[in-house]
Every structure is written in C-alpha cells, then in structure tokens.
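Checklist before submission:
- one chain only
- standard amino acids only
- sequence pasted in full

Submission:
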Amino acid sequence: MQILNRMQITQFEVMRGVAALQVLAVHYEDYFVCRKHYFPNLNLFGPYYPGAVGMVLFFVLSGFVISYSYFDRLCAGDNRTIGKYIGLRYARLWPLHVTTLVCVFLFSIPHLSGDLWSLAANALLLHAVFPHYGVLFNYNGPSWAIGVEMVCYLLFILPCLAGRRLHENCIALLAVIGIYIGYKGFTTWSLPLSACSFYVGCGFQVFKYSSAFVLGMSLFLSLRILDRAIGRVLRVRRMFKDAATICMLLFVFCGYLKHWWSDLLPMHDSVWLILSAVWISFAYLSRGNESPYVRWNPLFYAGIASYSIYLWHTMVLLFIDRALGTGQAYPLSVTATFLISALTYKFIEGPSRRWAARCLARYEVRKVHAGDAYVL
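Returned file contents:
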C-alpha cells in the first residue's frame, strides 16, 4: 500500500480554532451572564448552545485527521506499529491533561467532589469508558471530550487491522457505508439530556460524538479515490479552496449568530455535522493551494493552541471568579486563558508534540525495495 505524502493543511488548524473559541464563548457567557448575572443585558447566544457545534466539528475533524495521518502506516505495519501509535497518542494528550488535572486537584476547584476511582480514571484518560456524571465530568469538566477522543483512538485500530487484508476499493466502499453509520449513529444519539436520566444522557454524549469521529474517519477513506482522480488539476483544487473558505464563513457566522435567525431557519445538530464534513472535504481536496495569508488568521493561531485553550478555560474562569467575585472576572478570565494556554503550549504541549513527531519519524513505515516487506 502506498504511503501518501502528509503535507500540513492549515485549514485544519483554523477549524480547531473555530471549535475551541465557540466552546469557550458559550461557557463563559453561560457562567458569567446566565449564572452569575454580572452582565444581565449581554445575551449573544440565548438558549442556543454553539459549544455543541464546536464539539461536532472537533470530532469529525479528529476522525478525519487521525485517518489521514495513521491509516496507511498502521495498515502497512505490524503489531509493534500499533503499540507505537497508542504511545504517540498518549504522548500527545496526556502531558497537558495531567497538568490540568493536578492543578484542579491542588486548587480544589472540581465541578463535583470526586473519589479516588474517578481520579484514577481521569488520570489514565479512561473516564469516558465509565460515562457516569461523577466520573466523566468530575475534576476538569472539559476533559470528558479528551476521554471520548482516547476511546475513539483505540477503536480506530480495528479498521486498520481490517485494512491489512482488504483491497483499497473495498475499503472505500466500506468507508461510504461507514459515513452512513456515523451519520445515523449521531442523529440517533442526539437526544437532549432532559429526555433521559443524566447517567444515560452522559452515555448518549459518548456514543454521539464517537459516531461523529467514525464519520470523519470514513470520510477520509472514501475521499482518497476522488483525490487521486483530481490529481494535480490546479483549477479544480483552487475551486475547492474557494468552497472551503465559504464553508468557514458559514460555520463561523451562522454558528455564532444563530440566536438571531434561528426562528426563521431552525437547524438540527445533523446540519452542523454535514457542514463540518463538507468543510473538511473541501479543505482536504484543496491542500497545496492554500493562501499564505491563512497563517495570518487569528483563528489559525487559536487552532494551534486549541487543546490548551479547551482544557484551561473553565478552570481559569472558576478560579478567577472565586478570587474576585465581580464582573471584572469575565475579561480577566478570557485574557488569562489565552496567556496560560500560550505558556503551556510552549513549555508542555509543544515539547510533547515535538517528541511524538520525532518518534513517528524514527519509526515511520517505509518501503525499502519494491516487493520487500514493510519494515520499521
């Protein structure tokens, strides 16, 4: 199986930035406006929850990127490759996750009082396996998504093992079926928490976003044939670049401003799932023709530090509000979140990612001679 060239797709960083800022914005407004009533006249989102839109984009993108980066390597390698893949995923997520977990524990600001069992599950990134409120959301609440992400990473191994024995066209056909399964699973599990007990509701969230991950993974495997058919036709790729830009504008403006026009055009979560998949597809098919000005986009830099922003934002707002107890905590929390995220990205997340990249380059699967076995 041919190993594809892995060029960086800057639009993916923009997507991460959009998702992280949507989650941050709605959490901060919900806390400071709806709960603390510091700014009673500030109501940008109303009953709408754009943070959920950001999570949809995040999981579809995650499934796509993990397949883009690892599927061919795991299919061409052996069981040792799978072990290295798991180690690299933990190296990517665990250092910053455990840093925030220790800070929450030391400052005693968990959402709920947790026991040693939930603390151990959180520390090992296995808290999504036990989707009870006391395990999934205790300590640093946003880390529930990282737990679900880790479960998805482990499940990703199964299609890679199947890919070792299947022809590429067969994989593409199964991927199309996987898109339908992911969409159907997402819409089936998209029930409001008020419709069921919270224990079951947390389980629904795990299955819902795992389905979005499956859709993203299947999307990449099905697009590869179309990508080869397009080849190096620059005109077509530039057309996809323009379409990706339009999708970005739709996602940003419609996502943040939906409260103002939702009465005219109500939209279900499945619409955002489809729009996420379309945006990711256009960005992938237009890679290599991206504008250099994308790197000047503030969303690009927010995307680079999106993991840090996501894990720190609720802990920072709780700590600063507890210290000040006034409306000044709102702007200070936003500023502190970005500063702390920048520092932890530089000194914790960045070094761990570079270490993981060096390991991946060292053990990257390559073909030595035509007809030879793949070696590490």
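Reviewer check: The two ends are 15 Å apart (CA to CA).
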